[in-house]
Each structure stands twice: as C-alpha cells, then as structure tokens.
From TrEMBL:
<keyword id="KW-0560">Oxidoreductase</keyword>
<dbReference type="Pfam" id="PF01315">
    <property type="entry name" value="Ald_Xan_dh_C"/>
</dbReference>
<protein>
    <submittedName>
        <fullName>Xanthine dehydrogenase YagR molybdenum-binding subunit</fullName>
        <ecNumber>1.17.1.4</ecNumber>
    </submittedName>
</protein>
<dbReference type="Pfam" id="PF20256">
    <property type="entry name" value="MoCoBD_2"/>
</dbReference>
<dbReference type="InterPro" id="IPR046867">
    <property type="entry name" value="AldOxase/xan_DH_MoCoBD2"/>
</dbReference>
<dbReference type="InterPro" id="IPR000674">
    <property type="entry name" value="Ald_Oxase/Xan_DH_a/b"/>
</dbReference>
<dbReference type="InterPro" id="IPR016208">
    <property type="entry name" value="Ald_Oxase/xanthine_DH-like"/>
</dbReference>
<dbReference type="GO" id="GO:0004854">
    <property type="term" value="F:xanthine dehydrogenase activity"/>
</dbReference>
<keyword id="KW-0500">Molybdenum</keyword>
<dbReference type="Pfam" id="PF02738">
    <property type="entry name" value="MoCoBD_1"/>
</dbReference>
<dbReference type="GO" id="GO:0005506">
    <property type="term" value="F:iron ion binding"/>
</dbReference>
<dbReference type="InterPro" id="IPR037165">
    <property type="entry name" value="AldOxase/xan_DH_Mopterin-bd_sf"/>
</dbReference>
<dbReference type="InterPro" id="IPR008274">
    <property type="entry name" value="AldOxase/xan_DH_MoCoBD1"/>
</dbReference>
<dbReference type="InterPro" id="IPR036856">
    <property type="entry name" value="Ald_Oxase/Xan_DH_a/b_sf"/>
</dbReference>
<feature type="domain" description="Aldehyde oxidase/xanthine dehydrogenase a/b hammerhead">
    <location>
        <begin position="22"/>
        <end position="126"/>
    </location>
</feature>
C-alpha cells in the first residue's frame, strides 16, 4: 500500500519545492503590505549600565522619519520576569547589543541614516563578560530548564575512581556557537482595530502568539501569526526574541501601518541566542576488563545575568553508558552577555563532544578498540531512571557502521599513516538525542467538494520537509493517496500545534493528525460527504513515563591533517542512525546530512570570540565566523537501520532533526588524534592545535 499511495515511507520531494526554487514561496519579509514602514533597531554599545539620554532631534527632523521609539516613549508592556522580552521598559542595559530603541521611517535607507544621527549617552557600570570557573559568577541553576535537575549523583565516584584499574581525568572546552540559518529572523507587524498581525519567521506561530499576546495585554485570539515558509531556525527561532516585541511595539505606535524589520547577519550575534560555551571535566574509571565503574561529568556553561538559560551539557552522561557510580553536575556562570538559547541538539551536542572524546581516550587507556569499549558498556535499561528503553539500537549502528566503513582493517596506532604530507586517521563516536513529543497539538480534517481532504494544523515547516511528511502521515491514516491530501500549516488561523523543536515536530503533530484521521473515519465513514469535518487534540502517549525514549547513531570519520601546516580535512563521514520509522527517506536523509555537516562545521570552524573589555562578539559575520561550506565537505553518507518503535507515537518514528549533529565533532576529533597522535580537547580543531 505504501508504494502505491505514496504515503509513509515514500521518498517524496518537498511539496513546496517548485514554489521555493521559482521564488514564489513567500518568506516572512517578502510579504508586501501597502505603504510599509521600516524599522531600524538601536543597540546598546555598553555591556552594563543605564541609558541617560537619547537625542533623537536630528533623526526625527529627517524627511521620511515617522518616529524614534525609546524607553521614554514606548508603550508599557505587562510586567514579565523575562528580561530579554521587556523591550524598552527601562533605561537599564544588561548586555552589549541589547535593543534600546528603533527608528521608523518610510525606507530602510532613511531609517538607517536617521539611526546614525542619534546621540546616546550612558552611565557605565562595571561589567563582567569573561567566561571562567570562579565563585564570583558560578552558581547552580535554579531549575529554569524544567527537563532535568542540575545534578545526578549515584554511588560514590571518588571511591570508585580510587579503586579503578584504569582512569581518565580530562577537561574539554567548546566555544559559543551561533545559529545561522540561511534566513535571518524577520518580522512584519500591523496593528489594526485592536488586533495584531505578525508575518514572522519562527519555529512555532502558536508559541509566538502565546508569548506576545499577554505581554501586549491582548487576548491571544487577537494576535495572528503567519509563517508559511521558514528558512531554517536550528532553535534560534524556537521562542520569539526581543526584535519581535520591538516590532509589535512599533506597530502599536503606528496603527494601521505595517512595520517591517529584517535582522542582519550581524544582529544575530547578539539578539537571537547562541549555544553557550562550556568547560567540561570528565572523569572515567574502569576495571581490568574495560567496564566503566565511575563516570564523572561536570559541566560549566555561560549564562546571561539578565536571563538564565541552561543547556545542561553534562546530562548526556546520565544514560549513555552503564556505570554504577555517577556524578553529573551542571553549573552556570552568569555574565553581562546576551542570553543563550537552543541550538541544534542543545545539551547533547556539546555534552557528547566531551563524553565521546573521553570514551575514545579511555578506550585507549584500557587498551580496547573504541567500538568494543562502547559495546562493553552498553546498558540494558536506562541507568539513570531504571526504565526500559523503548528501543535502543546503538550497538547495531556501531556494528553496521564498522562494517560499511571498513573498521576491521584499522591499525589503532596513532600517527603512523601518511600519504605525502598528509597524516591520515579514522575515528568513531556515538550519537543520541531524546525522543520527545509535546502535548496538545490539534488538527482539523475536512472533506472537500472534489473528494480530497484538507488538513489544517498550525505547525511549522523550517525547510525540513514537515509539510510533506505530515501529508504522508495524513494520507496513511486516511488510507488515501498523498495526492488526495491538501495540508496547510504555518498560521495561528489553524489549530494549535506545538513548537518545531526538540526534534519533536513530526512526532507531536503526526500524533494529532493520526488521531484526527481515525476520529474522522469513525464519525464520517470512508465515503464522507463534502463538508464533513473533524477537529481533535492528540491524546497523551500512554507509554510516556514507562520507557526511556531516544534515537541513536554511530558516526565514523576519516581525517587528513597536513604535517606542516596542521590543516585538517574531512574527506569521508559515515553516519548510521536508529531513529524509528522513517516517514520520508528523502527529507530524512537531508536532515541527517545537514546535522553531520553542521557537526563538521562545529568540529573545524565555528568559533566566536568575545572581546571581554566590551562584551561583544568580534567576529559577528561570515567573514570572521566560519561555517562549513561545500568545499569543506567531502563524502558524507547517512544511512539508517530499519527500526520501528511501538511505544513512542502512533507512527513509530523518532525525531531526526538533531541526532545527526550529535557525535560528529567527537568522531572528527578522534580521527584527528588517530592521524596525528595529538589529542585536542578544545573546539574548534584549528590547524595551530596540531603543530
Ligand atoms: Mo531545536 S535546537 O530544539 O530547534
């Protein structure tokens, strides 16, 4: 049936592909209202203090300037504990780059020029933007991340380490990394008759509404968020950031006018979050057989003094491998810097870089092959919760990957393979990401006059192919061909859908669609009248809380390091994943390739540099902040096991958006060590570190 009806499992091309490649798919900023007003944001140039004066006279006297919005004239928002979103509500400055005003003008050029005429004076307070382990700034997070507690202590790691045959104690660092989707954030706001309409690039229109409406003191039904196409987000568009509030405030100041704001690439280095830098100490102890007896993972991450964000990178070590004694801690250093946010694989991406590098080091200490070392430490149930795994096929991924990659012929000795001036090595690392599903998503299915089915769900397609995958899920559930489904998403006019985040979009929305389709068939039969319609909410997963649910993968890298310059290349990557049932092999393959490519980028290039004297990122564009380009990527192969997980959701699928980046950087670093004998514990793996 699957092949015939093009439903789940068929490698369909993106349904909106032709619209995208012909330029007719409208992204947020491309919406063209009549007579728009352009917003140019003003940003603080100090890291901490107060704005004492903003001289707007020259700017406001320019022809074409409507007004300059500052904390002195902006409308009051409802009070909020979220200091990032309390835009223009006080004279306080909590980080360099913070929004302190906006120029509104008839053209972007006029707005930009007017902004240059504005004089701002400050009262400077001493600031601290130096990320370090120091009791002045370090604290235990107070639970802003509801997913997990800060610490997990089982047994006694110190005693176990003292008794261990083999031990490792190593510290790994990762820099702040910045989400850089192709489409920077953009918002158009229009306030009319007490209703606010936002054309906004986001990962959840209903989420934007839920945040914006109470801040502006309006009923959620009076806020409309429209977002049919999104050019990537990677977590930075998961929650609305300060610019959305600024544009909404501006629209309220100019009723009836549409206010347009497109963030620049530079803005993205202070206004929309980042993956916080980490310092992670890992201690491992093992017995003479290479079985882990102790795992210590202590992570320190940067957070902003004005708003806590915690990745909790150490938590990857809670349930990855068996170890009777575990000591997992997450600490934060609060600084006068912009707030961090989610970035692809938040927590696991940084945490597994450290853990999977340490596992490679420890395998060597124990004299065991790194794949065999992982097999020996494979848990039978979740070592942190004691729950059974809903499905866990890491071992099969490692075995299949080893076979495909030719691991059996590998000489484990580091630094002995050379072709001309290039040292050659191979490495492996494991991937994992939780299988989540957010509650409450709804969908509507209606039978149209032509006999086709219209499906409405307020979900987001970040460019990943969600629209296509959901159409396939709907078609399967209705037992019709995908051509008989007309799926609409991306707007608050559609039923509530949870965030496109946590690799949980397809699972959460698909669960709603399957449920509504079944209900529709019960109510209207298999030959419904045109106009027959059903709306319903996805029921909670009865297996939630009974199983530990995760996707897994094994990544293999071949690396070449130039003996004289330290230049590092990655000619070959292989990822083998176990991520449940694959809804659409074509778009899933792209997700895995994208994750692995971003992992190479993290391994080799991505490195923001903060000037601690001023509190800003110096390399705030693509000239200075390097991301992997085509020329950096050799052969990448991504494949997966045939896995169906009956417990996770009605589709048997797991999230695939994030697991692909997890482990890549460790695999590359482990291969670089195999090539050179040099163990780098600090990302990115730049040439200087191999000389
Ligand atoms: Mo993802 S970092 O949860 O958008």
């Amino acid at each position: 049936m699957t092949g015939v009806l093009n439903t789940v499992g068929a490698p369909l091309e993106r349904l909106e592909g032709p619209a995208k490649v012909t330029g007719t798919a409208t992204y947020a900023f491309e919406h063209r209202p009549d007579d728009p007003v352009y917003l140019h944001p003003l940003q603080a140039t100090i890291a901490r203090g107060r704005v004492t004066n903003i001289d707007t006279a020259a700017a406001e006297s320019l022809e074409g300037v409507h007004t300059v919005l500052t904390h002195t004239n902006a409308e009051r928002l409802a009070s909020t504990p979220d200091s990032e979103l309390a835009v223009l509500q006080s004279d306080e400055v909590g980080f360099r780059g913070q929004l302190i005003g906006a120029v509104l003008a008839d053209t972007p050029e006029t707005a930009h020029h007017a902004a240059s005429l504005i004089g701002i004076t400050y009262e400077r307070h001493p600031h601290d933007a130096a990320f370090r382990d120091d009791s002045d700034v370090v604290y235990t997070h107070d639970g802003s991340n509801p997913m997990m507690s800060a610490d997990l202590v089982h047994g006694d790691v110190d005693t176990a380490l003292a008794a261990a045959t083999f031990t490792l104690d190593a510290t790994y660092t990762t820099p702040a990394e910045y989400n850089n989707p192709m489409e920077p954030h953009a918002t158009i706001a229009c306030w009319q008759d007490g209703e606010l309409t936002l054309h906004d690039s986001n990962q959840g229109s209903h989420v934007v509404r839920a945040v914006v409406a109470p801040l502006l003191g309006v009923e959620p039904e009076r806020v409309h968020v429209i977002s049919p196409h999104v050019g990537g987000g990677f977590g930075a568009k998961g929650m609305p950031h300060s610019h959305v509030i600024l544009v909404a405030l501006a629209a309220k100041a100019l009723p009836g006018r549409s206010v347009k704001c497109a963030l620049t690439r530079q803005h993205m280095f202070s206004l929309v979050g980042y993956r916080p830098p980490t310092v992670q100490r890992i201690r491992l102890g093992a017995d003479s057989e290479g079985r882990l007896t102790a795992t210590g993972h202590d992570s320190l991450e940067q957070t902003a003094r004005i708003k806590e964000f915690a990745d909790q990178s150490a938590n990857a070590s809670r349930n990855m491998y068996v170890s009777p004694n575990r000591h997992i801690t997450n600490r934060l250093a609060a600084l006068d810097v912009p707030p961090g946010t989610w970035m692809r694989g938040p927590g696991e991406t940084g945490g597994m870089y450290a853990l999977e590098t340490a596992m490679d080091e420890m395998a060597q200490v124990c004299g065991v092959d790194p794949i065999e070392f992982r097999l020996r430490n494979e848990p039978e149930s979740d070592p942190s919760s004691g729950l059974p795994f809903s499905s866990r096929n890491l071992v099969a991924c490692l075995r299949e990957g080893a076979e495909k990659f030719g691991w059996r012929h590998r000489d484990p000795t580091p630094g002995v393979r050379r072709e001309g001036d290039w040292l050659i090595g191979t490495g492996v690392a494991a991937s994992t990401f939780p299988t989540l599903s957010f509650p409450g998503s709804m969908a509507t299915i209606r039978c149209c006059s032509d006999g086709r089915y219209r499906v409405d769900i307020g979900a987001s397609d970040l460019g990943t192919g969600a629209r296509t995958a959901l159409s396939q899920i709907a078609a399967e559930a209705l037992e019709v061909s995908v051509e008989a489904v007309d799926l609409h998403l991306g707007s608050t006019t559609q039923p509530f859908a949870s965030l496109a985040g946590g690799s949980a979009g397809t699972a959460s929305w698909g669960s709603a669609i399957v449920h509504v389709a079944r209900t529709f068939r019960e109510e209207h039969g298999s030959t419904p009248e045109p106009g027959a319609e059903t709306t319903a909410t996805a029921p909670p997963n009865p297996a939630a809380g009974e199983y530990s649910m995760h996707a897994y993968g094994a990544q293999f890298a071949e690396v070449r390091v130039h003996a004289d310059t330290g230049e590092i290349r990655v000619p070959r990557l292989l990822g083998v994943f176990a991520a449940g049932r694959i809804i659409n092999p074509r778009t899933a393959h792209s997700q895995f390739l994208g994750g692995m490519t971003m992992g190479v980028s993290m391994a080799l290039h991505e490195h923001s540099v903060t000037d601690e004297r001023f509190g800003h990122v110096v390399n705030q564009d693509f000239a200075g902040y390097h991301i992997a380009s085509n020329a950096d990527i050799g052969s990448i192969e991504a494949t997966w096991l045939d896995e169906y997980d009956p417990h996770v959701n009605p589709m048997g699928s797991k999230g695939i958006g994030e697991v692909g980046i997890v482990g890549t950087a460790a695999a590359v670093g482990n291969a670089a060590h195999h090539a050179t004998g040099i163990r780098v514990r600090e990302l990115p793996l730049t040439p200087d570190k191999f000389l």
